[in-house]
Amino acid sequence: MTVWPDxxxxxxxxxxxxxxxxxxxxxxFTGIVYHGAYVQxxxxxxxxxxxxxxxxxxxxxxxxxxKSLAFAVRKMSLDFLKTATIDDVLEVQTRxxxxxxxxxSLHQQIIxxxxxxxxxxxxxxxxxxxxxxxxxxxxxxxxxxxxxx
Length: 149
Hints:
alpha+beta; Thiol Ester Dehydrase, Chain A; 3 helices
């Protein structure tokens, strides 16, 4: 089995960086990246940020008191500044802002070179399978904080 060390990006100085190439499927009829595709890019960035921080979905499935955990986007504010087009290579940057109770606040940006194309402020809730908010287990919370230092 081949190992791809940067497949899920990397954390540099507390910021997770994930490279993303724009494909035809990401664009609309004008050849510009469709706004919904940016939301998918941000989701990939958050997922791989957690993976690189040592917060794995398999551990969330084990959960707390027999109840599996999940992350649910509670709030997302997007600011579209510039467009991307097919074949652009972008970076999705994810930075932890705050972790408090069942809430995790993040700031994300999609960058091409030195240009910020889209930025997002995201609040994610940690919930049980039945939708109740719950704190992230201490060992996972510690991993997340250590990765962001």
